[in-house]
Amino acid sequence: MTRRLRPTRQVDLDFLVSAPLRLVFAADAAAPPDAVHTALAKDTAGWTAWFDAVTAAVPTATGRAVGLRGGIRFEETVLADEPPRRFAYRVDATNAPGLRALLEEWALSPTAAGGTRVRWTFAADGPPALRAFLLMSRPGLGLSFRSAVRSLDRRLAS
């Protein structure tokens, strides 16, 4: 049975600093920031090809609808699309239990070698049990992120 989506709190970019839970991950890609930003912000459907956790990604009028492994779904609004340095979005509705607010930012900066330093900030709010679960999931989220950046880099190189 698919759980219905329920609205989340409508946070803004300040939530990246004020969120009760912030997880930040970073990895380097050989591809330049322009190419990485285009893949993140413009090739919505392409996310399923490089981010294993993403099973569906469809553009909408204000952002996108995303499905994850395990049946979690999000309706998102893009809050920042600043090529080639930043892409950020807020979850407006989800079926994830307990999630009150979620904002994700992908910050991109050039590396000395001509590639991209990708920093992913996962800012969330929910009851203490959800925050504890997300903290315990940090190693897995980090592994998933690093794997996704490697996969994206391979995709951009081909």
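The record above closes out task 2.4. Task 2.5 opens with a second protein, given below.
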Amino acid sequence: MSETTIAGYDYGRVGPSPVGKDDLDALKAAVLFGPEDEAALRRAGEVLGEQVEAILDVWYAFVAANPPLVAAFGGPEGEPVTTYLDRVRPRFGQWIKDTCLRPYDEAWLAYQEEIAERHTPAKKNKTDHAPSVDHVPLRYLIALISPITLTVRDFLARGERPAAEVDAMQEAWRKAVILQVALWARPYAPQLW
């Protein structure tokens, strides 16, 4: 999956984030995300990169089994908009790679803001012209931290690495997901962020 062929993947081509480096550094400190986590994420990216489609299969099955989650990709009657789900999938896969392999710099921060806005009425459905609901409820972005972090462990363990290294990669992944969800919450309540 080449990022240059992913429809709607605009990394490096979006406006700047209103979140500055100092805020990002404070969030990293709040989730205890440090250089050892960055290194563990790079190793995780090596392991997960070959398994992206299998990971997405697990996540999509989880969403499909939970009607409130399906509703975020649903039409007016609540039925899933399969073309929308299909278009989001490659970007979701690229997000896995970006989480592990991109430097957490201004370009990354700007794209986190873009992802965040694509979950809110500001930009939901605009990238894919999807006939879907106008936002993803914030409570589900937060709640999805659990399955998005827990399910990755089995994939990390397939890399035939020592258990301590798998633990470190899992912990770095968890911190990175929490960090991103905290950033994605900003557009939901900017005055309180």
